[in-house]
Amino acid sequence: MKVTIIGCSGSFPGPDSPASCYLLEAANFRLLLDFGAGALGALQRHIGLYDVDAICLSHLHADHCLDMCAYHVARTYGPDAPYPRVPVHAPGDAPHRLAAAYGMPDEPGMETAFDFTPLRPGTFEVGPFTVTAGLVNHPVEAYGFRVSYGGRSVAYSGDTGESAELVRLAEDADLLLCEASFVDRPDLPADLHLSGRQAAEHAAKARVGRLVLTHLVPWHDQSRILDDASRGGYGGPIELARSGAVYELD
Ligand SMILES: [Zn+2]
Ligand SMILES: [Zn+2]
């Protein structure tokens, strides 16, 4: 399995990265986790415009799903349209919310480009991947994911505050893509986001092979986030996510 970070900027795009989007490839199949603002541009540096085989959306905050609008245009009006509809696993309100974001009626909505399946906690197959979705702690319906193929696993936090479910999803994963939106401080709000220290604590509890800190908010000094993570009791490798970074898990 090959993991490419397309977008790792938290809450809005930064100068060097789109908002959240991760490309997972195995057995000639390409799965996106989230499709945040600006991601469709950077994605085309790595795969063709029409090469996305499936999409999972962690939640419906704009920084995780708004480029679905842009991709709807590409697949609905491109030169060889109609293109096959892309399976999308997303919170149940996604067809309505994305149609509203685009400015189109709910019927037919984005059905020309996408085939929506409502997410629920549990395990399902997406192409060659086994995907487990679990509810995490954020102000809206929000999922973390574990994606496995060929004995390797990557876990992705989505957006969450401290979460036992995230530890469960990430248990013994080769790679944890964990949000670290906050600079650490004593009075962090619950059920919203994590600091680097909290991300590392989740990585330690789950005994993951590698921790990549992501959802990095541009207004922070990212060296602080990395420094916070070094105090989370995790002994494995820790690094900051970077748009274009590739992790080969074999
Ligand atoms: Zn976010
Ligand atoms: Zn969010």
From TrEMBL:
InterPro entries: Metallo-B-lactamas, RibonucZ/Hydroxyglut_hydro. SMART domains: Lactamase_B. GO terms for molecular function: 3'-tRNA processing endoribonuclease activity. Transmembrane segments: none annotated. Pfam families: Lactamase_B_2. Residues 18-197 form the Metallo-beta-lactamase domain. This is Ribonuclease BN (tRNA processing enzyme). It comes from Nonomuraea muscovyensis.
